[in-house]
Amino acid sequence: xxxxxxxxxxxxxxxxxxxxxxxxxxxxxxxxxxxxxxxxxxxxxxxxxxxxxxxxxxxxxxxxxxxxxxxxxxxxxxxxxxxxxxxxxxxxxxxxxxxxxxxxxxxxxxxxxxxxxxxxxxxxxxxxxxxxxxxxxxxxxxxxxxxxxxxxxxxxxxxxxxxxxxxxxxxxxxxxxxxxxxxxxxxxxxxxxxxxxxxxxxxxxxxxxxxxxxxxxxxxxxxxxxxxxxxxxxxxxxxxxxxxxxxxxxxxxxxxxxxxxxxxxxxxxxxxxxxxxxxxxxxxxxxxxxxxxxxxxxxxxxxxxxxxxxxxxxxxxxxxxxxxxxxxxxxxxxxxxxxxxxxxxxxxxxxxxxxxxxxxxxxxxxxxxxxxxxxxxxxxxxxxxxxxxxxxxxxxxxxxxxxxxxxxxxxxxxxxxxxxxxxxxxxxxxxxxxxxxxxxxxxxxxxxxxxxxxxxxxxxxxx
Length: 463
Known about the structure:
- The chain is of the alpha+beta class and 463 residues long.
- Helix content is 30%, strand content 25%.
- It is built from 12 helices and 18 strands.
- Strands 12-11-10-9-13-14-15-8-16 form a 9-stranded antiparallel beta sheet. Strands 2-5-1-6-7 form a 5-stranded parallel beta sheet, sandwiched between helices.
- α4 packs antiparallel against α5.
- The N terminus and C terminus are likely disordered.
C-alpha cells in the first residue's frame, strides 16, 4: 500500500456548517440536504441551532439587552441634579434614579456577556457530542451544524468577542478553519428576494428587512477566511437555490451527482496586476499559506500538502487530484493533524519548489473571493504573480459586475496550464521538462511527446 492510499480507505466524517441571514432557506435546505445524502447511503446527523434551543426554552434576549435602560438612564441624567459631579440618588420610590438605572445597565451587560459565553460553550459541547458519534459510525457521515461557533461573533461587539476568546483560550484558526470542513451561507431573502421575506413561520424571528440584511452580512463576514466557504445567493428561484447548495457540498466531497442536480457553479481564476491598497478592500482576512507537492505513483495523479494559518495557528490539508472517467478532475481533501502533516512531508517531491503565498479572503456583492499573492522564495515565474479565485454560477455581464472593481483584473485564466500551481512550482524550465501538466486528461500524444491543444506559455509572469 502506498503511504497516501490509506487516506482514501477510511470512512468519511464531513462537518458542514449551514448558516445565513434570516429567511435564507436554512431549514428547508437542511432537510433536502439530509434526504439527498441519506439516499446516497450516508449517515446524517443534524446539530440543532443552540440559540433557538435556548430561546425557545423561555430566555428572552431582549431582557438581557441594556439599550433601552441606557436610553432611560441618559434621559434621567439630563433632568437630575448633581452633587460633587455625582447624580443625586432619587427618593421617589416610584421612579428609578440615574444611579439605579446605571447599575441595572451594568448588570444587564454582564448578563448578556455571560449568556453569549455560555451559549458558545453549550454549542461546542453539543457539536462535540455529534462529532464523537460520527467517529464511531461505520458509514460515511455528514454532520450538518445549524450555524457554527463563529456565528456568535456576528452578534456581539468586537472588543467583547476578543475578550471572550482570550478568557477561554480560543483562537479563530481552531474555531473556524480546523473545526469544520465547509461553510455554506444561505443569503437572506431580504437581500435580493425581498418579496419572499417573512417572519410569520419562525417563532424566534422578528427582524425587519433592513435588520435582516445587516445580520445577513454580519453572519457571512464572521466566516471570512474559512478555506471552503460558499455563498448561495438569490440569483435563482428557491428550488434552484437549494439545489445549488447541495451541489456545492457534493463538489467539495467529489461526489458525482450525474444529472440529479443542475451544475451551475464553477471555479474561476483571474490574473490580477498590482499595486494593491488595503484601504480599497472591504473587511478581509489574510493568511500565510505553504504548499508542498508529494511524490505519486503516476503522472496523472497529483498530491499536495497545505499549511494555512494566522498568528502561529495552523490548519493542515492533504489533497489528491486525479482524472475522472467522464473527463472531470476529482479532488479529495482530507484534514490532517500537525503530526500527520509532518510525517507526510517525508514524501515531498524534489522536482517542485515549495509554494509560499499570502491569501486574502473577502466578500464583494455576496460573492466570496480569495486573492493569492505569491511570495518569495519561489521560481522567477511566480514573482509578482497574483491570482483571484471564486466559485460562481454567474456569467457574462452579471459576472463582470460581481467582480471587485478596485482590483486590476487583467484576464480570466481558468483552466490555463500556465497558471496551474502544479506547473508554477516546477523547478525545471517548462521547455525542458516532461513533468509539465497540460491537463489531467485530454492530452495530445505525438511521437511520445505531450502537447496542449492550445497553450500560452508564461515566462517571468508574462503570457
